Amino acid sequence: MQEHEIWLTRQFNEHLAGLGNFLLGLAGQHAEAPGHPWKNFIVMQLVVVLLMMVLFAILRSRLSVERPGKMQHLFETIYLFLQETASQNIDDHPADHVFIFGTLFIFILFSNLIGIVPGLESPTQVPYVPAGCAMLAFVYYNYIGLKTHKFAYIKHFAGPVWWLTPLMIPIEIASHLARPLSLTVRLFANMFAGEKLTLVFLSLTYFMVPAVFMGLHAFVALIQAYVFALLTTLYIAGASAHEH
Length: 244
Prior knowledge:
With 244 residues, the chain is mainly α. The protein contains 9 helices and no strands. The relative contact order is 0.12.
C-alpha cells in the first residue's frame, strides 16, 4: 500500500520524478510507481541535511572570539558536552572521534525534531534511516578497532584461550551484529511511537493538551539522539581500548 504523501513529497514527485527515478536507477533500484519515486523519509532527510548546511554556513559566518552570539554559544556548549563525553569514555585520542558521533547526534536530533513542524514528518520514524545511521556507527568503530590494533582486533574474536575459539567466534560475531540492530530498533520504535501519539492527541483536541505531548516528543527526540551518540562513543571506546 502506498504511503501517505506529505505536501513536500508531493512537490518532489510532481516536479522531480525524473531525477528520483534516475537516482534509484544508479542504486540499482526501481520505483514501484514511476510517477512517485520520492518517499517521505527520503525527502525529509534531504530537508534536514539542507537545514544543517544552511545553519552551519550562517554559524560559520558569525563566528567571533570577541563577541560570540547566542547561536555560537549554543553550539560551543554542544561541542564541549560531546567532547567531555568522549574524554570520559575513550582513552585513545578522544577528540579525534567527536566529529563522527557529533554529526550523528546533530543529524538525528534535527531528524527527530522536524516531525513537530505541522505538515512534516520525522525521517527517523522509518527504520531505513536509523539503520543507515547504525551501519555508519558499526563500520566506523570496527575501522577504528582495525586501525588501532591491526590483526589483534580480529584475534580477540577467538577468545582468551584457543580451545574456546569455536564457541567464542559465533558469540562475538552475534554480539557485534546485534549492536546496529539495537541502535536501529531503539531509535525507530521510540520515534514511531512518539510521532503516532502526538498525531492522535492532535486529532482529539487542539487546546493545550497537544502542546504537552509535543514537548514530550521534543524531550524524547533529544534523549534518543544522545543515547545513539553515547552508545556509538562506547563502541568506539571498546574497539580502541589498549587492554582489548
